[in-house]
Design goal:
single chain, mainly alpha, Fic-like fold, Arc Repressor Mutant, subunit A, 2 domains, 3-stranded antiparallel beta sheet, two-stranded antiparallel sheet, 14 helices, 5 strands, 60% helix, 4% strand, globular
Amino acid sequence: MFQPHYTISNKLLNTVAQIEAYRVRTDTSAILPEREIEMRHRSTVDATHDSTSIEGNPLTRKQVEAVLSGERLTRHRYAQREVSNYRAALDYIEKRRGAGLPLQVADLLELHRLTMLDLLPAEKTGQYRSGEIFVVDHGDRVAYTGTAPHEVAEKVDELIEWLAERSENLNPVIASGILHYQLVSIHPFANGNGRTTRLATACYLGLRDYDFRASIVLDSYYAANRREYYAALQQGHGTRYAEGRDLTEWLNYFAVGFLSSAKVLWTEVSLLSEAAGRLNDARRPVRRLTAEQTDLLSYVQRFGDISVSEAQSILPQLSRRSVQRVLAGLVQDGLLATEGAGRSVRYAPPKK
C-alpha cells in the first residue's frame, strides 16, 4: 500500500492558507461570461506552451496560439503535433471535470494516449512501458531510474487507490503535490511522463473543484525555472525509485509554486472583475482584454500609474505608436485615465 511520508510544517500550512484565500476570492469574483471564456482560453494557451516547452518544444506562445487556432506551421510539424495533442488532453480534462468519480487509472492512460498520439508507436501510447527507463541529464549521465517495469501497474494502482481513499482528508494542494511527485517518480510510460503527470495533476484538481475556475496554470512556474523544478523532484526521489522517501521539501516547493500561480491568476481575475463593473456602469459594449492590456493593467495595479516609456519596457515587441494605441484603448474603455499632457502624460485608474 502506498503511504507517503512528509511533515506539514508551519511554512506549508501558511502557504496553503494563502492559496485557499486566493481560491475563495477567485471563485467568488464577478466576471462577465465573455471575459471568463477569454481567461480560460489564455490559460489553455499558457498551459500548453509552458508544459510542452519544459520538454523542449521550440514554439513561442504566439505560435502555440496560432496552432490552437487551426493554423499549420510546416517547419515545426512534430512541435505542432505536441501542441495539438496537449490541447486534446486539456479538452478531455474539461469534459472529465463534470463527470464525477475520483481520478482513475483509465484517466492516466487516456491522458498519455492523447498526449503522445502519433509521437510514439501506437502500441506505446496509453500503455505502460515494458522495459526499464532511464532519465539522463545534459551530459548523458543517468540522473534517474524509474520503477522496474513489472512493478509499474501495481505502483500506479496503489497511488490511485490512495487518492480515492485517503486524499479526501487532505487539502487538494498537498494531495495534488503528492500525486505529481509519485507519478513522475514511477515514470510509468516510455515517453511523455512529465506532460502526463502535469495533466493528471490538473485533472485531479478539477475533480476536486480546486482548479480556480478551470484557469490556474501551475506549469508556468515550472517553465520559468526548469532547473529548480527538476532539482526539487530530484531531491525528493533521488537517482532511483524507492519507497518511503521524505516529500516535505518537494511539497514546500510545490505549494510555493501553486501560490505563485494563484497570485498571477488573481491579478487577472481582479482586473477582469473591475473592468466588468466599469464597462457595465458606463453602459458600454463588452470588449475582451488582450494579453497586452492585461499586462499594462497589472502594472498599474501594482504601481499606481504608468508612462508610455514604462509601457514600452513591458511590451518590447510593440512599437511606441502601438503601445500608445493600447493605452488609448484602455482610456476609451474607461479602464485608465490620463494625467498630465505631452511627454509627461501618465495613465492611472479613473478617479471615482
